[in-house]
Amino acid sequence: MSEKELGQKWDRCLADCAVKFGTGLGLGIVFSVVFFKRRTWPIVFGTGLGLGMAYSNCQNDLRSHYVLQSKVAKEQ
């Protein structure tokens, strides 16, 4: 694996982590306010789920030895 590929994988991991962290945090806040009378556990739970999914995706991405790229053939 070249340094460029490793850098791309880390960039994808960090972007995925930010998206999943933000989504889990946002959903946790919404559920906390709407359903659970402003308790903190839904926020922590949602954030933990987001970070856990991002960690799992990064682990799988960094362990793969090759990048699958699909090329779509255009019919004319």
From TrEMBL:
Transmembrane segments: 18-36
Membrane topology reported for the UniProt record: Single-pass membrane protein
Gene Ontology CC terms, in alphabetical order: MICOS complex
A Pfam family annotated for this UniProt entry: DUF543
Entry function: Component of the MICOS complex, a large protein complex of the mitochondrial inner membrane that plays crucial roles in the maintenance of crista junctions, inner membrane architecture, and formation of contact sites to the outer membrane.
Assembly mode: Component of the mitochondrial contact site and cristae organizing system (MICOS) complex.
Listed name of the protein: MICOS complex subunit MIC10
